């Protein structure tokens, strides 16, 4: 499967626990984006990363959320001390290069996080 | 602050007829627009895009129209097929906002056989 891969597909956490969401971009893609979709809403941009660099994190909450895209391995979105409001679908997308805003982003299947 | 709006949450169309999905935006700096299709429990799949230098882009049964003065775009599917039943999201981006896409809230299309 050459598509964007995300795991786990479903994640259940209790309030106060940590959630780690992983994303492997398409082969040959070096740009990763994370989006969050709350119920009944569209996808909201969170963060844009290249290998070992955070390029734009303007959509990420300032506290409890962090993202990385190491030289080796998948991109990780980490949510510390989860709260019920963090329950959402988290989608990762990748693109092959940065053509500015014209580069089509290809999405993974998403991770559905449920906070009890 | 919803900069991209899809005011119809749902649409039902008979198989073989035309489906028209609409999208409005408020940011005049947007210069690239995309439509994504999403099935339940899957990620959005890229469908078609259009840049602001064009007013129409066609790909098979799918055509996107852009009216910059009205800040409006639409997706036409002709003829509609049952497999087209999905949620359709429009998205927009601007050079000034880098690689960030702004998504609408989606329109759920049901094509009735």
Overall body shape of chain A? globular
Overall average residue pLDDT of chain B = 93
Strand content of chain A: over 45%
How many angstroms separate the termini of chain B? Answer: 38 Å
| SS field, number of helical segments of chain A | 0
Query: Percentage of helical residues of chain B?
Result: under 10%
Most residues in contact: chain pair: A-B, 31 and 30 residues
Query: What pattern of helices and strands is seen along the backbone of chain B?
Result: EEEEEEEEEEE
Low-confidence stretches of chain B: none
Q: Fraction of residues of chain A in helices?
A: under 10%
Low-pLDDT residue spans of chain A: none
Relevant terms:
heterodimer; A: 116 residues; mainly beta; seven-stranded mixed β-sheet; B: 113 residues; six-stranded mixed β-sheet; five-stranded antiparallel β-sheet; globular
Account of the 3D structure:
The complex is a heterodimer of chains A (116) and B (113). By secondary structure, chain A is mostly beta strands. Helices cover 0% and strands 48% of the residues of chain A. Chain A contains no helices and 11 strands. In chain B, the strands form 2 sheets. In chain B, strands 2, 4, 5, 9, 10 and 11 form a 6-stranded mixed beta sheet that branches. A 5-stranded antiparallel beta sheet of chain B has the order 1-3-8-7-6, with no helix packed on it. The radius of gyration of chain B is 13 Å and the shape is globular. At the A-B interface, strand 4, strand 5, strand 9 and strand 10 of A face strand 4, strand 5, strand 9 and strand 10 of B.
